């Protein structure tokens, strides 16, 4: 049997009747949520994890075929929820994880109680009248940037980290840099992230959902937030003063307040 | 003894570019060295945001990796970037730490920039050689597999007739008992050889995408 908790390096913190599961975006790991979690763990049970390939996940569980689409990642989210027997979770996903959450919600209708999207985008590439913000050639540029920068990842250390839970100093070598990822896996995740077109999925989503849109985000421009608002049932859109792609890092307080206010509103008001 | 170093001169004309910008990217100041390298004047560079100095891919990379790293760890090291200049582009290594300034509210990012044009050429050479070697290696093993596949087929035909002849001998009752034992050993050896060759064929066929 696959140990899901180890595979996705799942950690649970805080307590409360409501469970929130936080999914990190492309490029980092679960630690990206720490500033937000610190303010939420007194009221909520918070579940954090790393996608397979990121952070301290089990790299040997990486399967090219499975993770060639967002579905593979969405199934892992559901696996984690099942392993922890979570009831009616609130899903919080950053960037690509917003759409992974949507996939998960479509795979298991009626399961999630609410979804919170932080800097989401259903499709990053410009397509006719749709403004995603990127051209496909920009993705190639990004991939070549990734080729030139391994950010502390080392093939000599990585294999030692897994299966050496009793030697945490090995893990520290990698987590010291939270963007460290196996470069080949990172490139495949980049392709799935930026080339997946989740626009059709949005129209099928029924779970009440909330977009936290930054006011100046080159990866998810304002037009994308508006697109999601127009094409998704039960969507609430908030435009943050925060700039950039990671409001949970650049403006944690504003992000925390937005998340808290949405989660505390009774479901009825959105139905 | 009084410290003889003039810090302003040291900063402005350092052997590396130095730049200070706000978390939203707005450039606060850049030293003379960086202005010289990039060809921007002081007023022009102050109207820009740091990621705008980069190509689109670099700009994306900045928002996906560099800025989150700065926010999480307050430092980044040895990031290879391309800086766009009015006349072309400049390959650099970028390191930065977050800090504070008297005149600017909140945190700022203090970066240093090393020009690595020569180093990049060397890296390109290495990469080129690596790819060439990889290509040659792949080509070589393809040729070897082909040879193995063809040769083992050639060997198989006479071996099949040897096996046939052995079984004819085995069926012959007039052979004396001493030779019978020899024929049996002959059969075993020939069968083993047949297995080895079948293996080579299977392996080389797999290597060629299942011929």
TrEMBL record, chain A:
**InterPro entries on file:** AB_hydrolase_1, AB_hydrolase_fold
User: What domain of life is recorded for the organism?
Assistant: Bacteria
Residue ranges annotated for the AB hydrolase-1 domain, each copy included: 21-258
Q: Which Pfam families match?
A: Abhydrolase_6
Question: Which family, according to UniProt?
Answer: Belongs to the AB hydrolase superfamily.
Record protein name field: Sigma factor sigB regulation protein rsbQ
The root-end lineage is: Bacteria, Pseudomonadati, Bacteroidota, Sphingobacteriia, Sphingobacteriales
From TrEMBL, chain B:
The reaction(s) annotated as catalysed by this protein in its Swiss-Prot or TrEMBL entry are: ATP + protein L-histidine = ADP + protein N-phospho-L-histidine
| Residue ranges constituting the Signal transduction histidine kinase dimerisation/phosphoacceptor domain according to the UniProt record | 143-209
Question: Where do the PAS domain residues begin and end?
Answer: 5-71
* Molecular function, one GO term: phosphorelay sensor kinase activity
What is the name listed in the Swiss-Prot or TrEMBL entry for this protein?
Answer: histidine kinase
EC number(s) in its UniProt entry? 2.7.13.3
The record's annotation in Pfam families points to: HisKA, PAS_9
Q: Origin organism of this chain?
A: Mucilaginibacter polytrichastri
EC main group: transferase
The record, for NCBIfam families, names: sensory_box
| Recorded superkingdom | Bacteria
């Amino acid at each position: 049997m696959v140990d899901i908790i180890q595979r996705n390096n799942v950690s649970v913190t805080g307590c409360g009747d409501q469970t929130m599961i936080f999914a990190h975006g492309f490029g980092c790991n679960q630690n990206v949520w720490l500033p937000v979690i610190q303010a939420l763990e007194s009221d909520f049970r918070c579940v954090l994890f790393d996608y397979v390939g990121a952070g301290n996940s089990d790299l040997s569980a990486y399967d090219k075929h499975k993770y060639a689409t967002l579905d593979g990642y969405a199934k892992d989210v559901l696996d984690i929820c099942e392993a922890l027997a979570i009831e009616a979770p609130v899903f919080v996903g950053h960037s690509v994880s917003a759409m992974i959450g949507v996939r998960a919600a479509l795979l298991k209708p009626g399961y999630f109680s609410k979804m919170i999207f932080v800097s989401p985008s259903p499709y990053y590439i410009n397509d006719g009248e749709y403004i995603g913000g990127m051209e496909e050639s920009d993705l190639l540029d990004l991939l070549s940037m990734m080729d030139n920068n391994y950010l502390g990842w080392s093939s000599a250390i990585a294999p030692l980290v897994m299966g050496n839970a009793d030697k945490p100093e090995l893990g520290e070598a990698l987590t010291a840099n939270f963007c460290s990822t196996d470069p080949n896996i990172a490139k495949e995740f980049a392709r799935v992230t930026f080339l997946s077109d989740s626009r059709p999925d949005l129209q099928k989503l029924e779970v009440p959902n909330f977009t936290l849109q930054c006011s100046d985000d080159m990866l998810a421009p304002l037009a994308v937030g508006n697109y999601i608002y127009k094409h998704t049932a039960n969507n609430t859109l908030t435009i943050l003063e925060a700039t950039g792609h990671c409001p949970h890092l650049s403006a944690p307080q504003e992000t925390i307040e937005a998340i808290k206010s949405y989660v505390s509103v009774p479901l009825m008001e959105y139905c | 003894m009084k410290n003889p170093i003039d810090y302003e001169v040291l900063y402005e004309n350092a052997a590396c570019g130095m730049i200070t910008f706000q978390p939203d990217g707005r450039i606060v100041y850049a030293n003379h060295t960086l202005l010289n390298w990039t060809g921007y004047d002081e007023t022009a560079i102050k109207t820009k945001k740091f990621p705008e100095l980069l190509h689109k891919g670099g700009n994306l990379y900045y928002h996906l990796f560099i800025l989150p790293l700065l926010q999480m760890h307050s430092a980044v090291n040895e990031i290879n970037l391309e800086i766009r200049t009015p006349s072309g582009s400049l390959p650099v290594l970028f390191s930065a730490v977050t800090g504070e300034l008297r005149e600017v509210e909140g945190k700022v990012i203090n970066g240093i920039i090393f020009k690595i044009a020569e180093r990049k050429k060397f890296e390109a050479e290495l990469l080129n050689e690596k790819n060439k070697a990889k290509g040659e290696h792949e080509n070589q093993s393809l040729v070897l597999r082909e040879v193995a596949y063809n040769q083992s087929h050639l060997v198989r035909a006479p071996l099949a007739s040897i096996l046939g002849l052995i079984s004819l001998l085995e069926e012959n009752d007039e052979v004396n008992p001493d030779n019978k034992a020899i024929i049996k050993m002959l059969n075993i050896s020939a069968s083993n050889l047949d297995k080895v060759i079948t293996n080579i064929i299977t392996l080389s066929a797999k290597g060629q995408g299942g011929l």
